[in-house]
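Example 9 (inverse folding). The structure is encoded as follows.
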């Protein structure tokens, strides 16, 4: 047998099996088949919306269908596997059967066609075409075609990616034919190039020449400053030297310290030893020696260096010291009295 005759026989056999199973499982949402022959038998993949109705209780329905195929059509050892259709809106056979059922129930043909078209496009199809032929309004035949999206008509994409299904409906005026063409979202066309994988290129807007020169100058200046900073040695900044105090401030500090010492000494002396200022003024160095019972020691004069306080003029120098004058008068009176006491002795 020639290959051409074999291809024709295989295609006729596929159509017979398809029509038989479509009538058998019309209520189960029949969506088509794929037939492959093997040395062990014929493998049939059946697509349906409701696989439970195809299989039946304990697989009785599917066993009965496989027996009928073997007896009536003469298929050797048919093995049927049921596959559930995940998205029925993308299956042209299911959508064509829905349009046909709507026409049988008396729905207006335009309403049925547009309803199915919107459902198909909402499910993600690239393109869809629905053609309705026959006596639509009168006895005279005409056709109504509705298209949305992109549907190729020729070439390899039309054969590979476009799914087609046709169903005939018996009406009062005659037989109507419903043809549905759907382009699945998985289709890839040679004229449609996808550039989503390419990296994004950031394009800078054009800048005037003057602005570019200014920007370049600023960049060069910044670079030169950075180089100078990097080349220049790091110099440790000396700590701030303490500002020398003025002479007046030093003199004030010394006087305040001396006053504090005097007050401390006065506080530390007992009350018996404390003398009033008037007694200290009247007391002579000889009396002080007699009271203490010590012999007089020759006084050594120590020349004191002039301090900063001596250089500073003060108001006390201008005013005469009354205490010193009174001490001198007392000493003169004592010296006059001494010879009189010697004569009496």
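The amino acid assigned to each position is listed next.
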């Amino acid at each position: 047998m020639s290959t051409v005759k074999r291809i024709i026989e295989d295609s006729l056999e596929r159509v017979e099996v398809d029509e038989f199973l479509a009538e058998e499982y019309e209520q189960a949402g029949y969506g088509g088949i794929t037939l492959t022959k093997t040395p062990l038998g014929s493998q049939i993949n059946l697509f349906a919306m409701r696989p439970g109705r195809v299989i039946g209780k304990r697989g009785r329905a599917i066993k009965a269908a496989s027996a009928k195929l073997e007896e009536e059509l003469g298929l050797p050892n048919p093995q049927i596997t049921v596959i559930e259709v995940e998205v029925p809106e993308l299956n042209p056979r299911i959508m064509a059967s829905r349009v046909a059922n709507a026409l049988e129930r008396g729905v207006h043909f335009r309403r049925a066609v547009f309803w199915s078209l919107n459902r198909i496009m909402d499910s993600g199809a690239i393109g869809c075409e629905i053609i309705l032929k026959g006596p639509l309004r009168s006895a005279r035949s005409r056709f109504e075609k509705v298209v949305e999206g992109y549907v190729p008509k020729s070439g390899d994409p039309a054969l590979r990616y476009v799914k087609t299904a046709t169903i005939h409906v018996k009406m009062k005026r005659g037989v109507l034919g419903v043809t549905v063409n759907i382009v699945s979202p998985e289709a890839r066309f040679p004229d449609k190039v996808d550039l989503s994988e390419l990296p994004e290129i950031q394009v800078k807007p054009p800048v005037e020449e003057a602005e570019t020169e200014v920007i370049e100058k600023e960049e060069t200046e910044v670079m030169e400053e950075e180089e100078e900073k990097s080349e220049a040695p790091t110099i440790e900044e000396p700590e701030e030297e303490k500002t020398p105090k003025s002479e007046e401030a030093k003199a004030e500090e010394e006087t305040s310290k001396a006053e504090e010492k005097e007050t401390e000494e006065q506080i530390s002396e007992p009350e018996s030893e404390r003398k009033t200022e008037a007694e200290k003024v009247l007391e002579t160095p000889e009396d002080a020696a007699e009271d203490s019972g010590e012999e007089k020691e020759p006084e050594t004069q120590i020349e004191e260096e002039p301090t900063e306080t001596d250089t500073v003029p003060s108001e006390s120098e201008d005013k005469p010291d009354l205490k010193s004058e009174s001490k001198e008068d007392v000493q003169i009176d004592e010296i006059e009295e001494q010879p009189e006491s010697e004569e009496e002795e």
